[in-house]
Structure formats: C-alpha cells, structure tokens
C-alpha cells in the first residue's frame, strides 16, 4: 500500500472514531500490523517479531482493526448507479447491446481452515478446503457487493440465491449484471450461450474471429465480464492471505476475506 493511501485510510478510521490509540500502541501501528498480516499472509509469530510485540498485543490490534474495517463498510461500499456506465456507452462494440448492464459478478475460492466438526462441506471439487466467495463489481473495478462464508462445495448459483434472498444483494430495477454460464439465466443476470466458445483464452488461440451471432455475443460478453476476473487477480496479489489458509478462527476468516474486497482495494 502506498504511503499516501495508508495515511488516508488511517485518517478515515480515526476521524470516524473507528480506531484509536491505546496506552502503548498507536493507531498507526495497529493498522500497520493488520496490513502486514493480510498483505503478506504473516503468522502471529511473524507479526510479533516484526513489530516487537507480544502475541496478545498483535491479536488485539488485529481484532480492533478488523472491527473498524467492518464498520467502515457502509461508508466505502456503493451500489451501482442507474446511468449507463461509461465503459459501455463509450464503446460501440458494447453499446447499445449491453446498455442495461452495470457490472459483473462471479465466485472465487480462497483457502480456509474451518472448524473440524463442520469441515467436510468446505472441501471443494479441487480437493482443498475453501470458502466460495461471491463478489460483484462495476466495470471500473469497484466492488459493489461481497458475500463470504459459504462452503467450498456450494455452487455459485446457490451462493447467489442466498445473497439475493437473504443477504441484502440488490440489483437496481431494470439493470443486470454479467455472469458466467454457471449461474443460469435470470431477469437481472446476463449469461453467455452454453456450448459456444466463450472464454477469452479460447479466442486467443489461432486469432480466430466469431463465426456466428452467438459467438460474437459470447466474445463481447467475455470481454466486458473480464473486469471481475481482473479485480480478483489484483486482490489476491495484493493480499496474500487470500491465497494462503489463515491461522485465525473461522468467523474472523469470513469477515476478513470479505472486507478486503469491500474496503481496502477501493483505497488504492
């Protein structure tokens, strides 16, 4: 994180009364400890060595900043607007065909260490323990919604259904998100044709051009939906804890993984 971004984030947390210094630890050090752990997937022992603090102090700093980030969520998270996104309106390949789309959504798996008593559902189809995290973003790479905590074995469609029915995910009336074929077709979700070439890497082979209207639609859909894959890549590169199973209690893992997408990337 750039120094200016760090200072701006610290000022925001302190000005809103979400984070404050304690007798022996400044608010700056608490935030630095948190970012060190999530940015480098550092263990508590590594953080203790880096900041020359006890395990208890590191844990307290992590918990305080985590709580502050969660409470910051309503400030930094914004639903998409009702106007046509610039990325659509300014591109003749996309407008007017995708004028009702406000962003893209997808699921991503991140390693998890669930409680032993309920670990089995977290084993995904690739064989490792994970959470299936749903996220939606605008075409300029700003997250509009994140839902963490679902087991790795849960389908993307099931997670989306829970988000829409129970977890406050609202799609503006008359608007749509772009999603992959795994979600199935619904009124507020635009998906590609099944059985037709889709992924951008498929189009890069042989430099081929679309041979039918369905192939052209799938190509444009994939090009525009690529924003969600890009932001997942940025997020996992910036916060290494998202690619390494964290050693912290599972409830903290769920909150922690979700708030990275909700807050930190938007701060630069």
Shape: globular
Q: Which architecture of the largest domain would the CATH scheme give at its second level?
A: 2-Layer Sandwich
Order of helices and strands: HHHHHEEEHEEHHH
Mean pLDDT: 88
Q: What is the C-level CATH assignment of the largest domain?
A: Alpha Beta
- Counting helices, strands and paired strands, the structural category is alpha/beta
Please summarize the sheet with the most strands: 5 strands, mixed
End-to-end separation in angstroms reads: 7 Å
State the CATH topology of the largest domain.
Answer: Nucleotidyltransferase, domain 5
* Relative helix content: 40-55%
Strand content: 5-15%
Radius of gyration: 20 Å
Low-pLDDT windows of residues: none
How many discrete domains?
2
Number of strands: 5
Strand order of the largest sheet: 3-2-1-4-5
Oligomer status: single chain
Helical run tally: 9
Main location: nucleus
Keywords: Hydrolase, Metal-binding, Nuclease, Nucleus, Signal
Subcellular location: Nucleus
GO molecular function, one term: nuclease activity
């Amino acid at each position: 994180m750039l120094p200016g971004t760090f200072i701006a984030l610290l000022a925001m947390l302190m000005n809103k009364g979400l984070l404050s210094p304690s007798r022996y630890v400044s608010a700056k050090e608490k935030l630095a400890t948190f970012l060190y752990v999530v940015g480098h997937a550092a263990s508590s022992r590594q953080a203790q060595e880096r900041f020359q603090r006890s395990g208890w102090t590191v844990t307290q700093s992590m918990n305080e900043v985590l709580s502050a980030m969660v409470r910051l969520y309503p400030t930094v998270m914004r639903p998409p607007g009702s106007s046509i996104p610039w990325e659509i309106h300014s591109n003749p390949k996309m407008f007017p065909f995708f004028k009702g789309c406000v962003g893209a959504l997808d699921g991503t798996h991140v390693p998890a260490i669930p409680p032993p008593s309920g670990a089995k559902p977290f084993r995904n189809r690739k064989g490792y323990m994970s959470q299936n995290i749903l996220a939606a973003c605008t075409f300029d790479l700003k997250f509009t919604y994140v839902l963490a905590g679902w087991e790795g074995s849960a389908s993307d469609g099931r997670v989306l259904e829970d988000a829409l029915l129970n977890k406050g995910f609202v799609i503006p009336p008359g608007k749509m998100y772009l999603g992959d074929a795994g979600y199935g077709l619904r009124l507020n979700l635009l998906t590609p044709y099944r059985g037709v070439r889709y992924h951008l890497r498929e189009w890069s082979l042989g430099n081929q051009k679309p041979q039918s209207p369905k192939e052209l639609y799938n190509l444009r859909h994939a090009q525009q939906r690529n924003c969600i894959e890009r932001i997942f890549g940025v997020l996992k590169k910036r916060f290494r804890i998202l690619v390494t199973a964290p050693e912290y209690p599972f409830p903290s893992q769920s909150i922690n993984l979700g708030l990275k997408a909700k807050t930190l990337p938007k701060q630069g």
